[in-house]
Amino acid sequence: MATITQPTETKTTTEMNTDKYLVFQIGNETYGVPLLQVQEIRTYTPATRVPNAPDYVLGVINLRGNIIAVIDARTRFGLPPLPEDESTVVVVAQVNDKIFGLRLDSVSDVMDIPLEQVQPTPPIASEATQRFLNGVVQVGERVVILLNLREIFDIDALSQIAA
Amino acid sequence: MDSLMQLFYDEANEMVEGMEQVLLALESGEPDPETVNALFRYAHSFKGNSAAMGFTHLSKFTHGLESAMEVLRKEQRTLTPELATLLLQAVDMIRTLLERTRTEGDVGDPTCEPLLQQINAVINGETPQPTAVPSASAPATPAEPPDVQSAPQYRITYQPAPTLSAEHDPLQLLSELRDYGQVLECRFREQIPPLEQLKTDACYGSWELLYETAFEPAIVRALLELVAEGAEVRIEPLNAPSSTETVQPTATETVVAAPQPSVATPAPTETPAATAATAAVNTAASKGEAQSIRVSTEKIDALMNLVSEIVIAQSMLSSAQTADTDERTRAAITQMERHVRELHERVMAIRLLPVSYLFNRFPRMVRDTAAKLGKKVNLEVEGEETELDRTLLEALSDPLTHLIRNAIDHGIEPPDERRQNGKPETGTIKLSAYQSEGRIYIEVRDDGRGINTERVRQKAIQLGWITENDHPSEETLYDFLFQPGFSTAQQVSDLSGRGVGMDVVKRNVESLGGSISVQSKRGEGTRFLLRVPLTLAIMDGLGLTVAEEHYIVPLTAVVEAFQYESLQHTALFDQYEMVNVRGEFIPLVRLRQFVGLPETDHDGLIVVLEQEGEQIALLIDGIAGQQQVVLKSLEENFVRVQGFAGATILGDGRVALILDVSDLIRRGRQSAERYAAVA
After folding, report:
1. Last residue of a domain, which of B141, B160, B177?
2. B464 and B359 fall within a common domain
3. Can you give the CATH number for the domain in which B29 is found?
4. Are residues B148 and B135 in the same domain?
5. Residue B291 lies in a domain
């Protein structure tokens, strides 16, 4: 939540608080994550499977000498995974001092999200996925669902990977 | 140079820098009471450290500084620019003293005292008197009174505060006074109450001094107030100085020394000892002027990381060789390989330090802990010269401290109990280190009462881990000790059992790629054995394959590898799989099963792995060859994964997980126990 209430530069034209978000498509919906948390976007390279990890953890990859985990966004949201193609990317983000990758079908854009207009997520989503969401916002004709990366890369839940 | 000495200088330099930074930060920011607190803490630690090393001049100066800060701190005052400048001079003075101590021994500097005077004068709102208090830039020798005969004399009565704490050192007062004049007479008066009213932490003595000095009475007063805080001090000027009263200066010392036992503070007794030790320390300091430079660990770490990257690049290069690679390229790669290996070893050696660096902290701790618990413990140290990676050493400090404390608290019995059991009253804790099979072993052994396995079992039943009818093996019971939430301490003592348990020790050691085990015999003692790798960074690994996956085991653990033949295989009750290796049955662990892959029919290979004298046979699909691997943490950006010691990056840039041999062995042992339970 802290990520969306964070005040940043004010747009002079509209006099509104906006934050830059990286937006992408999963299924038919548009999702967004705060650009500030995103380090880089990479093409997907196969990850090394980690035995006994939950299914949404694709495995670990080498990020310039560091080992980071890659999480599949579709599996995490309970959607069937898609086979990878040229547009499959890994968004490298940092939460809680840990770097991880989120595999996405594609990334589309960087958008200015007006923070005042963000509304709480309607309780239509299941309890399990509700925590991944920070709210929804209408930008022009698109509805953008804001994601909570901290919950998606839930390090506490992962910390018990026992063989 | 002696490592303890080196540690002192390293810390001292850091503290000097820290003080300077705090002071300099003032210039750019708002004055803040926290600054004073920080300076106080620095001066305080400095005083303690230098006193411990026997550097009397340094400790005296920093003590003065500490007292000055204490005044500011009490009154919640902030630093004025004037004071900040003086304090920076004090920091420079500490530097000078440090340098002098290092080169010439415990000699001190004549400008110390005037500087302290000046600081105190400013703090007390007085303008420094140029005659009596020369500025630090103009060194003088105030310890020499201008004229003994004509100097005025004072009668000083010094009654320390009833609750004399270790902070207040009567002896220091006397020695301060000696620096400014002459103590002609020193009488000690004791007013010790009857035994039943005696408080052990109170002071019942007072001193009466005949003092002669050329300095202003105000200075004498300031000096006394500085040293004798909270004490009752009376200064009466005596008009007629008479030379007949003069006592030999040497006599002063004997009179001072005599009353010490009556004073209920350890401080005065410690100071002469420290002074006596000074001479020995000094010679060590001057001899230890090694030709070395101080390099920050970050720089070495950066270098190490770079070497690690080169090792990865090198292995990429090596694996890029094909049958068509021409002879010259091949030769160059081979040569490169050799140089890279040597480079790695050399850089590694920079980071190695003898374990004495770590072990030296323990004698004091053992003494204090034992004293607190009313036990007699003797610490024996062995193999201090064993060298270990600096990061590892630091990371081992907490686990070892915990183990030693535990040994004193729970292991060693009280003296009378020991006597009853026919043991010497003084218990022994033996701390030893040695290197074997490319690993470092550190052992903490005590001759105490040993681990009560029955109590461990009862506790495990109580915790619901086992049932009344379970009688697990000793090893399993010992394993319980390392589980979170387990503590057999009857009562939570002040020293151990503060929630930081053996599980934390185990986790710490394992996060270093090491392991810990325990052996114990009732009534005879307990032995903890820690195994850690020589380095955290690079090791020789053997690549193993199952299906399309690639895993690494440390080469040091590999005993042999051979084709798996079903004839060798035995399974008891379909549970306990074993492989017969030349007549010896070794527990079998299937790597496919271990990493959650489906089994195949086709025969694979067996790799026999050994650690701590225990072996397992690991069934794999194939061997991918031997290579140097750079150990990378899975935890840094992810989590610790059970069964794996870490990960590494292969020649093609992909990640491979490194198998944790001790976990594989545990797996083998568990199935063995399951078998034992069935049988």
Report:
1. B141
2. yes
3. 1.20.120.160
4. no
5. no
Does B557 share its domain with B519? no
Question: Which of B535, B531, B538, B569 lies closest to B552, judged by CA?
Answer: B538
> Does the beta-carbon distance from B647 to A99 stay under 8 Å?
no
Residues B262 and B164 in one domain: yes
- One-letter amino acid for residue B515 of the chain: S
Contact A155/B639, CB-based, under 8 Å? yes
Range of the domain at B480: 355-533
Q: Which residue has the tokens 């500097």?
A: B109
Walking along chain B (679 residues) 10 residues at a time, the average pLDDT comes out as: 74 80 68 73 81 81 82 73 80 85 79 83 63 40 44 76 62 72 76 74 75 72 66 70 39 36 40 42 44 78 79 80 87 90 82 85 84 88 86 86 88 90 90 82 91 84 84 83 67 41 80 82 90 73 91 89 79 74 87 88 86 86 84 84 86 85 83 57
Considering only the beta carbons, identify the residue of B633, B655, B657 that sits closest to A62: B655
The CATH class given to the A2-152 domain equals mainly beta
What was the ipTM of the complex prediction?
Answer: 0.84
| Under 8 Å between Cβ of B443 and B527 | yes
Q: How far apart are the first and last CA of chain A?
A: 34
**Domains of chain B: total:** 5
Contact between A100 and B549 using a beta-carbon 8 Å cutoff = no
CB contact under 8 A, A163 and B305: no
Q: Verify that B1 and B95 share a domain, yes or no.
A: yes
Band (pLDDT 50/70/90 cuts) for residue A124 is low
Chain A CB contacts of B655 below 8 Å:
47-48, 59-62, 67
Residues A1-57: tens digit of each pLDDT: 444 444 444 444 455 688 899 999 888 889 999 999 999 998 888 899 999 899 999
Q: Please check whether residue A162 touches B, CB under 8 A.
A: yes
What per-residue string of b and e applies to B433-457 under the rule 16 or more CB within 10 Å gives b?
A: beeeeebbbbbbbbbbbbbebeebb
Interchain pair B638, A51: CB under 8 A: no
Q: Confirm if B75 and B68 have CB atoms less than 8 A apart.
A: no
Residue of A43, A55, A62 to mutate, interface with B, max B Cβ within 10 Å: A62
What CATH number is attached to the domain comprising B225? 3.30.70.1110
Under an 8 A CB cutoff, do B654 and A49 touch? Answer: no
Instruction: For chain A, give the mean pLDDT.
Output: 83
Are residue B370 and residue B415 in the same domain, yes or no?
yes
Q: How many CB pairs under 8 A join A and B?
A: 80
With contacts defined as CB-CB under 8 Å, which chain A residues touch B308? 65
Q: The domain that contains B491 carries what CATH number?
A: 3.30.565.10
Q: Which of A45, A48, A159 sits opposite B656 (nearest CB)?
A: A48
A128 or B101, higher pLDDT: B101
Break chain A into its structural domains and give their ranges: 2-152
Whole-number pLDDT of residue B364: 81
Residue B438 lies in a domain: yes
At B606 the pLDDT is: 92
CA–CA distance, B631 with B670 (Å, rounded to integer): 28
Q: What is the pLDDT of residue B259?
A: 38
Quick check: A48 and B549 CB within 8 A?
A: yes
Q: Which pLDDT belongs to residue B101?
A: 83
- Taking the CA of residue A69 and the nearest CA in chain B, the distance in Å comes to 6
Task: Choose from B637, B642, B648, B662 for mutation: most chain A CBs within 10 A.
Answer: B637
As a whole number of angstroms, the longest Cα–Cα distance in chain B is: 111
Residue that finishes a domain, picked among B95, B118, B141: B141
Q: Taking Cα atoms as reference points, which of A144, A146, A42, A55 lies closest to residue A100?
A: A42
Name residues whose C-beta falls within 8 Å of residue B101's C-beta, 6 or more positions apart in sequence.
Answer: B55, B57, B58, B107, B285
A67–B595 CB contact, under 8 Å? no
Q: Are residues B266 and B367 in the same domain?
A: no
B505 falls within a domain:
yes
